[in-house]
Amino acid sequence: MLDETTRASVIASYDVAAARELGELDDLVQFASELCAAPIALVSLVEEEYQRFLARVGLDAEETPRSQSFCAHAMYGAEVMVVPDAAADPRFADNPLVTGSPHIRFYAGMPLVSREGVPLGAICVIDTVARDGLTPFQLQGLAILGRAVMGRLDDRRLTREQSITNARSRRALEESEQRFRTLADTMPQMVWSTLPDGFHDYYNARWYEFTGVPAGSTDGEAWNDVFHRDDQDRAWTTWRHSLETGDPYQIEYRLRHFDGTYRWVLGRALPIRDPDGRISRWFGTCTDIHEQKIALEEREVISQELSHRIKNIFAVISGLIAFAARATPQFAPIATDLRERITALGRAHDFVRPHSPASRPSAQQDSLKGLLTDLFVPYERGPGERLRLLGDEIAIDDRSATPLALLFHELATNATKYGALANDQGHVRVDIRRGDDQAALTWSEHDGPPIQAVPRDGGFGSQLIELSAVRQLGGKVARDWRREGLVVTVEVPISAFRRH
Q: Which of 149, 205, 321, 390 has its CB surrounded by the most CB atoms within 10 Å?
């Protein structure tokens, strides 16, 4: 037999008070009374000390002590319990409900059992005269009525449980939202959120402090009015793209400050998706980057000015070398080579240095092919006619540009003096092959003057190639003096081309 604590817990899960007050079971006991031709019909709920009547016909009492309850016996059975004559039944002969009002003689009760198998009470019919029993039809009808009672009670229980769950969910949501708002209001960034269609419905305290606008005045699409006029179309275009594609939102724009000035901010947003992958909300931030933006622009101007002055220094050095060569004729050949090397370094520096929009080269500044194309201009009749670049692209920076410029300048200069560029028919092919960790740069000369003998190593140009490729780039150099032309292969670690 189940303990009363368990029974009490299950009974508490039913909204029995509302069922009684609303009379939801009254029609069932009325039908039971008529079905069984009994003057009294009840739906009883047997608790620890009392049995309470959720519906009744023919009886004024709303409850009786459990010790007097017939239903306390019936509820533990599996089918209708019938007592033909209570006065002759040892269990009930001395029961005050038998010896006194309402003078029960006949009783028939169908157990009411919860979905967990816990007995709750019974639906019963009572007569004041002894009876032989119920007909099979009446027994079947009383059993059906018992199931109907439990069906209604279970429906109310489910409704109550859903109501409790919904209330808990609402409280949890309210608490979660309160925690979010508290956290958002303590953040240094402006925080906002939108519905899936982009309708702005929340801003934290920092937004209103920064913009100085009244609370709620930037809901919906009104947020765009606090953007700088020149940034509004760009911001809208970027935001619509994110809404249409679900891509993260990121943009820099100028936002009107409460003092009337416009300050640069970084706007970012990410979508929140439900289990089916649909966007349920967007959360975003705005970070004040005005000081960093101005400082970066100032550094950019200074960097451009310094790089421009360095470029002028290359030109001054070249001029000094030319002046010295004129004063000392025997120095002229060396001066020419030196001036050309300095010019090559100047071209490399000019390619990778910070530029203004007006002075920026047409090729991408981190492009190895772009750098080589720029370096090879003095040796070409037309773009790509004599020096062809093939293969992969590799990103470079200012650190690798100088040794690369010296390396390929020496190869091109030597080809002009002795190799494939020394006649009108020769040409050079540069193949770039990028691997996972290494890159191979192959210089191949074709159709130049035939090589009669392998030149001796150790000249200044060879030393400069070794210095550039090996010491500065950490690579290896291999030369192949073929009769049809020189082939030089330089293997360089990928990490040497660009800082990470």
A: 149
